[in-house]
Amino acid sequence: MNTSDLPTTVAEYFTDNRSDLFEFTETLVGHDTQNPPGQTSEIVEWLEAVLDEPSLAVERCEVDPDKPNLVATLPGRTDHTLCFNGHLDTVPFDEGDWSYDPLGERDGERIYGRGTTDMKGAVAAMVQVALAYAHTETEPPVTLQFAFVSDEETGGDAGLTTLLETTEFDPDACVVGETTSRNGRYSVSVADRGNIWLTLEASGTAAHGSRPMIGENAIDRLTAAVEQLRSEFGQRELSVDSAMDEIIEESVDFYEPEAGAEATRTLYRYPTINLGVIEGGTAINTVPASACARVDIRLTAGVDTRDALGGIRNCLTGMDGIEITDISWTRGSYEPLGSALVEASARAADHVVDDQVYRRSATGGGDAKVLRHEGIPTAEFGFGTQTAHGTDEYTTTEALVRNAISYGTLPVLYEQLTGGDE
């Protein structure tokens, strides 16, 4: 791993305190922060104690005492601020399904537990970066901020939204520590997709199941509407901002080994439509009079969501008994290739791996999308494993070290590319 761009004192700190990084991870995983309920007060108290350093200004921000957020700031040579963001909550787990302790167990070079790769391992690396600069009294080239938030896994308002709406949190750029490596391939995520969630309701006419011809089957109407969406709206090529073209091509190259090039290109050039929930009927021998479906539609960043909504409505117009009763949506977002943050992040990742680092779009979206829509340039990158949200989730000691070195190097590379201002 290349540490040439790290300040010498910081590089030496990483070498001398490597075991602390692994212990930080195990301690973080040992705090049960399954969401729901997503209680993070104890883990935040531990972080406050660890980050209690003279050069670090630590502030707690909360609207829900059970779900506080923590921001630590380390002044740099300029007031240009680079933020590292990580969430402290995790998805739930069923302990009976696990071969290892879901609240942390080390086996050789692997550390098992819920959140090890999503994303307490990255948080541990961020903590070590803060302490490396603070303990060695090394002034970073830019002001560093570390924002540890709650309530990400359920998209709740107590986390990043609270930070943005109730404080002056406004860094010049942000890196979110989501794991962006998969099966030995490495990337920086610079875009995400928007989503439209629809609730479709179908009405029909009840009848006895032995005489279906005298009724109108609401489930049949509902499935016909979903198929209409797939065959018409789902086959319309999206009008994607040309700035996304190169990002899409790198995304195709990244996902090709597991999904195929053509399927991945279709994923970004056309809407994806998933029927997630369907409800209807009261008995096997009754023609259902009502039915309901919830449909997840995803759109590549740079697509006009209003145009897409219009296309969806036009597609369903005239279908008997079909009504859209609820819509929620988000816009996709992207950080242009060539921006200081994207290039610095890719170069920082390059320092710790020998293979290509792709600059790609995520297939979903999380806190990075929220930050970009607030005008904060944001990228996601982190090293871990492809076990997020799964049984026996784990990270590796190598991934943790890669995170620490790349995050520690990033401020230097970012300052070089910005020259102190943007």
Automatic annotation (TrEMBL):
Pfam family, one: Peptidase_M20
UniProt cross-references to Gene3D superfamilies, sorted A to Z: 3.30.70.360, Zn peptidases
One GO MF term attached to the UniProt entry: metal ion binding
Keyword Protease: no
Cofactor(s), by name: Zn(2+)
Protein name, per record: Succinyl-diaminopimelate desuccinylase
Domain Peptidase M20 dimerisation: 191-315
Keyword match Zinc: yes
Keyword list, A-Z: Hydrolase, Metal-binding, Zinc
